[in-house]
Amino acid sequence: MPDIMTRYRNTLFLSALVLFAFAIRFRFAGQYAESWDAVDFALALQRFDIFHMQPHFPGYPLYILTAHLFANGTTDPVQALTCLSVCFGSLSVIPFYSLAKRLLPDQQAVWIAVLLFVTSPLLGLAHVQPMSEALGLFAVLLYVSLLACSLNSKKPLVELSMGAILFAIVLGIRISYFPVGLLLLYPLARLYRQRSGLGPFLLQTVGAGCLFLLALAAWLLPTAATEGGLVPYWQLGKAFTAGHFTEWGGTSFSSEAAWWERLQTLVWDRLLVNGLIGASSLSDGIPLPVWLSASLLAAFLVLGWAGATDAFRRGEASVRWFLLLAVVPYALWVFFGQNSEKARHLLPLLPWLYLLLGRGWAYVRSKWRGPAGALVLHSLTVLLLVSLLVRQWTVLQQHLFPPPALQLVTYVQQHFPAEGTIIYTWEEQRLFDYYAPEYDTERLRSFDYFAQSLQLRAPSVSRVLVTNAVLDGFGPGVHLPANELARFNADPFLYPSYHTVVLYELSPQTIERIASGMLRP
Fold it and tell me: Which of 503, 483, 481, 500 is nearest to 492 (CA)?
């Protein structure tokens, strides 16, 4: 009976946390397509076309298909995408709880990790955006919690087979989460150790592989068919991948930053400050004062060190291998293959941080056994969780306001007619395409291309507007005399790349000098 009552209380408390997370996220659900990718997804709900970036490769077919279920209740694609994020972001507490139950030493540590998960400002933000991360993280947690069953399973073939199917589903939602597939090596290794012979093992392995291929083909073949077949789809993929790694992706291969600088940015700025505190810097965690943000980070570091020490000293070797397979491949992928400016790429790593902190909390509690130590620990824990919840609430409130790039679009609509106006932009162009398609926009960051475009367009336009992203892209050697018209700002934590958007206008004299070739770098 006590076990039944304990399970009942745990289920009740977990349900309350899910409803609490849903209530907050629904209250602050995003209303705008705030980025290039968000516009891609919104347009995909109207017409699925990978060639025209609706959405971009590989098409996110299972994400778009799921979003269509939410689109039946609204005429606004952005609202449908946001509702999807709210629902699955809230439900992701359940598989995370299941994972924590299997990896943490006691129930109190489990609840600490779950509460950190629920109050996370970065996760809270991802769960109210019209993006694929919320559904993707839910699928990853479901997949990982299933594979965690193989830690003590006597039949790892079940986890291997089901995990293979779930991994194919993860790829259909967010293919950039592919490194988590290496975690399938764990149940495969357990299956090998329990083999009755090499033949049966190979047969079982091939069977699990066939299940993966069937699940993959279930979404890959229909998606490729929308682009004319596998060959055109493959060609689209090659072109997109080349651009991601060599031009605009912000990866280690296209960035000018040294690798040690990227490592510092990834660990300090993204993982610790963005991921744990929920701020762009320790001084920007409004309304938390700097000293409190610094104290929270120090507490996280202490708990993390305690958790890592305890896990690798007393934890089982099998659990350590499971954790390494779950974390290291994706961490390497984030470092080498993802844009270091965007903290959202780190989302699959955050649950592991919270599990580490939960284990560290349990370790510290075991050392502070007296009433005074327990009182201090629980008081500090309450302060930490309340601070994170306050920061999350502030972030979600700020997110309700239009992003700077959309404020730019609104300003142009209010102050300039579409006829005779051209706007040179970078990624802001996609928001013009969605919210103000009547305006003539051009996306560029090369001065030579800019000069060539002006030569062709100067006779037919009366107003030339440019954004700071364009001017910054020209490089330090180019200084255009431009008149600043408006500046739009927001918290860099919300919009890492476009938290400040500045609109400039070029004078007729400047346009003439550029078009005639008199003004050059």
Answer: 500
Q: Do 472 and 425 form a contact (C-beta atoms < 8 A)?
A: no
pLDDT tens digits, 415-472: 999 999 999 999 999 999 999 999 999 998 788 888 888 888 888 888 999 999 999 8
> End-to-end CA distance of the chain, in Å?
80
Integer Rg of the chain from CA: 25
Hey, which residues does 501 pair with through a beta bridge?
Answer: 488
Q: Which backbone phi and psi does 312 adopt, to 5 degrees?
A: -90, -10
Q: Does the pTM of the predicted model rise above 0.70? A: yes
The four Cα atoms 195, 197, 200, 205 give a dihedral, to 10 degrees, of 50
d(CA 187, CA 323): 13
The one-letter amino acid at 3: D
Contacts with 339 (C-beta within 8 Å, 6 or more apart), sequence order: 249, 250, 251, 345
Going from N- to C-terminal start, the domains of the chain cover: 2-399, 404-515
- How far is residue 237's CA from residue 224's CA, in Å, rounded to a whole number? 11
404's tokens: 């700077």
CA–CA gap between residue 87 and residue 104 (Å, rounded): 26
| Residue 377 φ/ψ, nearest 5 degrees | -60, -45
Task: State the residue for tokens 């291969």.
Answer: 253
